């Protein structure tokens, strides 16, 4: 279930975009999700340190390898070999997490769309109100002028 922890997991919001309550301060970086993240990626994120320790024990060449693409490729390759050996039940946990992740990203994107629509509607209303208030101000001025002229005649 939800017991998986993903230190490298990227949420729909960038970390610096979160406010102190843990909610998104800005939806600027939320994009429409095109597909779900493969369950294997979550497996790899959750097990990377275990796979890395295993490779350090098994392979002398891995020990001397600097961090970077080549090292990550070996970790992914070893992870893929382990993934292929897992039963469907063992994989289900990661598949469920991938589905939940996709749902969260879709919800975040839809919220962004709704909020942007509301902001646009408010901007349009404000633009309309500005025009009306300018007309009202000019009407008020002409009414004041007429009142002062009538008072000066009296």
Describe the structure.
The chain is mainly α. Helices cover 69% and strands 0% of the residues. It has four helices and no strands. It has helices at 39-58, 60-63, 69-85, 88-153. It is rod-shaped and about 105 Å long. The termini are far apart.
Radius of gyration: 30 Å
Provide the low-confidence segments as ranges. 5-10, 13-17
Shape: rod-shaped
Number of strands: 0
Task: Summarize the amount of helix as a percent range.
Answer: 55-70%
Count the helices. How many?
Answer: 4
User: How confident is the prediction overall: mean pLDDT?
Assistant: 78
Percentage of residues in strands: under 5%
The biggest beta sheet is recorded as:
none
The topology string of helices and strands comes to HHHH
Oligomer: single chain
The chain-level structural class is: mainly alpha
Distance between the termini: 86 Å
Please provide a brief summary of the model.
The chain is mainly α and about 150 residues long. About 70% of the residues lie in helices and about 0% in strands. Helix 1 packs across helix 3 and helix 1 crosses helix 4.
